[in-house]
Specification:
The chain is an alpha/beta fold. Helix content is about 45%, strand content about 15%.
């Protein structure tokens, strides 16, 4: 049984406070994780104001079914929340040594959006092909500046995957897109033949909305044993297939540390191999 543990690194705290703990934990479990890293800034103040105005104008419009999740402050803690909101530092571009450490420990690094996480999350659907090319190219250039190999995997902030994105990613040499999230759908082992972009599905995320799996579980008061059993049972149902679970480093190394760590231990005890990418399943 194989499981990709995917983290979206989209704040300074995800990189500087979350990743070091997760790297150490993975070493103790003989595990590897997949870190999808935004190299730019986390917050777009313009887009935040615009989204707030839209919500106010909609007023009495029916609200979608809410997800069981934490608020940003509760998820990150006040110091991290204020640092992100006020200072808004670059994420991956300011964490070269941590990213290099993760790579050296056998974890995979993918690209998560472009110059600004918030701008992509709320605006990328309206971008031109030229803008998408520029955003992806900027992220790749930042990987190169950090002395990192060219990433092969990509995930869009907020699952906001523009229609033109697959074509753009292929032109930049990517082989995997992680923007699909159909609950329970597993991935085949290995990478498909040919020159097409492989779209990997995230089977385990909090729904609706594709929020963090462990954050959602904490709010629902589920135990590590329950989570591990649910994941392992699903993996056992399709031999040789690969599952993917999703969350954020700042939560799994912070408020959700105990739940996440215990779930990883339970999964290893059940014979689940925690891998960084589909290619590892064939090794």
């Amino acid at each position: 049984m194989h499981l990709i543990v995917r983290f979206d690194v989209d704040t300074w705290s995800c990189a500087h406070r979350g990743m070091p703990f997760l790297i150490d934990l993975a070493s103790s479990l003989d595990a590897h994780f997949s870190f999808m890293v935004n190299m730019g800034r986390a917050v777009s103040r313009t887009m935040t104001l615009r989204q707030g105005l839209r919500r106010r104008l909609k007023g009495s419009s029916p609200m979608p079914t809410p997800s069981a999740k934490l608020g940003s402050v509760e998820r990150m803690g006040w110091p991290a929340y204020l640092y992100t909101a006020v200072v808004n530092p670059r994420v991956g571009s300011g964490a070269h040594s941590i990213l290099l450490r993760a790579l050296g420990a056998g974890h995979s690094l993918g690209l998560h959006g472009g110059t600004n996480h918030g701008e992509w999350q709320w605006g990328a659907q309206s971008w031109s092909r030229q803008r998408l090319h520029a955003e992806v190219a900027w992220g790749l250039a930042e990987f190169a500046k950090a002395g990192l190999p060219r990433p092969l995997g990509f995930s869009s902030p907020g699952w906001n995957s523009p229609q033109l994105l697959p074509e753009v990613l292929l032109e930049h040499g990517f082989t995997q897109l992680h923007d699909r999230h159909v609950p329970g759908e597993l991935n085949p082992p290995g990478r498909a033949d040919g020159d097409g972009l492989v779209e990997l599905n995230t089977a385990f995320a909090g729904e609706p909305g594709g929020i963090g799996f462990f954050e959602n579980a904490l709010v629902r008061d589920l135990s590590a044993a329950q989570l591990a059993q649910a994941i392992a049972t699903r993996l056992q149902a399709e031999a040789d297939s690969i599952g993917m679970v999703y969350d954020h480093p700042v939560f799994c190394a912070g408020k959700g540390r105990q739940l996440f760590s215990q779930t990883m231990v339970c999964l290893r005890e059940r014979g689940v191999r925690l891998i960084a990418s589909c290619e590892e399943a064939g090794k």
